[in-house]
Amino acid sequence: MSHPQNGSSDRTHQQQHPHVPPPMLSSYGPNSTLRSSPKRDHNPENYDDMRLQFNHLIFTSLEQYLPPHLLNRSREDKANYMVNILHRYLPESERVRIQKHKEYRRKILSNYTPLHKEIYSVHAENFFVPSFLQAIKESREVGFRRVMAEPVKGIFTFQMLQPKFCEKLISEVDHFERWVNQTKFRIMRPNTMNQYGAVLDDFGMETMLDRLMNDFILPISRVFFTEVGGSTLDSHHGFIVEYGTNRDVELGFHVDDSEITLNICLGKEFSGGELFFRGVRCDEHVNTETQSEEIFDYSHVPGHAVLHRGRHRHGARPTTSGHRLNLILWCRSSVFREMKSYQRNFSTWCGECRRKKKERERISIAATKQELLRMSV
Ligand SMILES: [Zn+2]
């Protein structure tokens, strides 16, 4: 087997994204330097439920080093202070970029007037089809299996969104694009591979998408994708991609910058645009051969979602006619990313790591058999 032909490079591309800006930095006045040694008898708080830019464990560890006057302040105060400290360790270029992105979002939010205010926060009954809602309510594997198909290992497809919601989201994106054109506002596109489309987080949908991830995707990923951080998702990047003859036409073979990707077709009328999947791979094995059982092609259906690991290699075939919009939610886990940086073997999810491990086991068993034979002679 070889890589799919897609007219572009034959190397798998890592799709990049703009980062999420940090919370407000605040000033803490004098005496706000860290202690040189930890205050061991101070019991640090738990930060794992807070939306922080860095792993919550860093905050728990750093708390014993806080200056005395901060130790009894609120958890939010302490977290803010520590974010401030951690930012000093970011390179200058990163700080400037974060600051610029914050400013960019502020400009959009204070000038753009939404068309459908009601889709900026989650209204479950208006957003989702009843079968999906019921499965989420139960949050059990058997319920998910009832409404979701798994046509190939690790790819789940299911009916998710109401047609009415899809229409509203499409018209909101159209409305936003018109505003962009009228005001000549220069917007950032969703990633390095799409020239069209918009980042939903940049024009006010960040909170809504956060809830979508936490309340409607995490219950599923916790069951099916736990080995790639599926139970510790803590940030997202949400965007719309547009395909068609006057838009992006296709998307080359790549992996996403996510642990879990939710890809929902919103419509409208189109032909072509099938997704092709070719197995899950770790960084090291991203360009290794595809095994025959890993080949899977999927045709989009409006309102239907595909849920897969970000490391599941894929691409989109040309949308040959019409106009197609998809909502993409990249879900990430900072805990998983940190753990991954200390590991070398990913045989629980990388197809190639698994194949190599099996091969080693086969050789080892064969050697043992040989040895036994030799001894019995
Ligand atoms: Zn691997």
Automatic annotation (TrEMBL):
Comp. bias regions, Basic and acidic residues: 38-47
Cofactor(s) this protein cannot do without: L-ascorbate
Keyword Metal-binding: yes
Molecular function via GO: dioxygenase activity; iron ion binding; L-ascorbic acid binding; oxidoreductase activity, acting on paired donors, with incorporation or reduction of molecular oxygen
Chain ranges of the Fe2OG dioxygenase domain: 234-333
UniProt-listed InterPro entries: Oxoglu/Fe-dep_dioxygenase_dom, Pro_4_hyd_alph
Keywords assigned by UniProt, alphabetized: Dioxygenase, Iron, Metal-binding, Oxidoreductase
Residue numbers spanned by region Disordered: 1-47
Name this protein carries in UniProt: Fe2OG dioxygenase domain-containing protein
Source organism of the structure: Lupinus angustifolius (Narrow-leaved blue lupine)
Source taxonomy: Eukaryota, Viridiplantae, Streptophyta, Embryophyta, Tracheophyta
